[in-house]
């Protein structure tokens, strides 16, 4: 079966900024993939190239075996931009109907409104909707062509907790039909709860790619915490240099050590700092893995 989409060696520069630096990702049909990364990591630029909105300087995009432009033309892809403008004076139903008239094989408007969970404000003018409601209308517009692949750039950015919950409930219904989804997000919990796979970007590169559990394991998954009495300003560097430790943070005598090998680290800690107390070792959460992978730790320290 053809990939739902593939990105091969994508590179994009804006002047001196290398926004996307050799990104390759292949996604199979039915996968729900979260694209995670801090601000400026290159997520939106990657998405724009996937959608054919930006031309890569080099590399190739294929969507269901054809070019991005061809896939858009065929209605294979539905996209939801972060903040595209909606026609303020049109009602939600009118806008969905307008979009439907532009598609070759649109879903009935009523079905789109239902799938996106916007039926209750179908007759309201778009200009009267809250930011979160407008996001849901953008989601409806992405569904009009009944696409095989949905691409969403920070879909829940303007939504409150309840809006987010309802949005993901609609998404679940959509993905249960075997469709492929790529969504960019800053919310780690969303990646953890709704994605099968996480692609983590930093400085334009993919720094981790795999199931949520594997991404955690990529940082060897343990956090060692301890209180270090009599810590001095050199202590943090000394902790970071311990064998098995990939990163150390020390605040007011409380040490947090990201460990590649926590057994090695705890032995070394007790040897070098025999007065350390309140020691605990926990599995690293995705949040901690994310921070460890996306902050400027020394290269190679995260393996
Ligand atoms: N049109 C542009 N012109 C110049 N620089 C750009 C342009 N688009 C993006 N960049 C730069 O490219 C880099 C990657 O930006 P991009 O928007 O892809 O990151 P992102 O991961 O989506 O960030 P965010 O989470 O803030 O949306 C940034 O340094 C950004 O400033």
Structural write-up:
The chain has 303 residues and is α/β, with parallel strands linked by helices. The longest helix has 15 residues. The strands form three sheets. The chain has a six-stranded mixed sheet with strand order 5-6-7-3-8-9, sandwiched between helices. A hairpin with a 2-residue loop joins strand 8 and strand 9. It has two domains: 212 residues, P-loop containing nucleotide triphosphate hydrolases (Rossmann fold, 3-Layer(aba) Sandwich); 62 residues, Alpha-Beta Plaits (2-Layer Sandwich). The site of adenosine-5'-triphosphate has 11 residues, from strand 2 and helix 1.
Give the CA-CA distance, first to last residue. 34 Å
**Structural class label:** alpha/beta
What top-tier CATH class of the largest domain fits best?
Alpha Beta
Helix content: 25-40%
What is the CATH third-level topology name of the largest domain?
Answer: Rossmann fold
Mean pLDDT: 87
Organism: Amycolatopsis oliviviridis
Protein name: ABC transporter ATP-binding protein
Subcellular location: Cell membrane
GO molecular function, one term: ATP binding
């Amino acid at each position: 079966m053809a990939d739902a989409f593939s990105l091969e060696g994508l590179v994009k520069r804006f002047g001196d900024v290398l926004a996307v630096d050799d990104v390759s990702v292949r996604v199979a049909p039915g996968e729900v993939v979260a694209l995670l990364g801090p601000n400026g990591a290159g997520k939106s630029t990657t998405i724009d190239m996937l959608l054919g909105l930006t031309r890569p300087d080099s590399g190739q995009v294929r969507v269901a075996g054809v070019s991005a432009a061809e896939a858009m033309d065929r209605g294979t892809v539905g996209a939801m931009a972060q903040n595209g403008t909606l026609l303020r004076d049109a009602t939600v139903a009118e806008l969905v109907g307008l979009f439907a008239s532009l598609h070759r094989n649109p879903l009935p408007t009523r079905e789109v409104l239902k799938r996106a969970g916007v039926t209750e404000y179908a007759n309201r003018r778009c200009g009267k909707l809250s930011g979160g409601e407008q996001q849901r209308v953008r989601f409806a517009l992405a569904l009009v062509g009944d696409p095989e692949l949905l691409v969403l750039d920070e879909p829940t950015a303007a939504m409150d907790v309840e809006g987010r919950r309802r949005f993901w409930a609609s998404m679940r219904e959509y993905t249960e039909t075997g469709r492929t989804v790529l969504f960019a997000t800053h919310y780690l919990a969303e990646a953890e709860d709704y994605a099968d796979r996480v692609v983590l970007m930093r400085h334009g590169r993919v720094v981790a790619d795999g199931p949520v559990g594997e991404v955690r394991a990529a940082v060897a998954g343990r956090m060692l915490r301890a209180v270090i009495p009599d810590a001095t300003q050199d202590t943090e560097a000394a902790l970071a240099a311990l064998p098995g430790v990939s990163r150390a943070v020390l605040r007011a005598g409380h040490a947090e050590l990201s460990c590649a090998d926590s057994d090695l680290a705890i032995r070394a800690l007790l040897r070098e700092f025999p007065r350390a107390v309140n020691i605990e070792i926990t599995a690293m959460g995705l949040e901690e893995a994310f921070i460890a992978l996306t902050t400027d730790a020394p290269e190679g320290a995260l393996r």
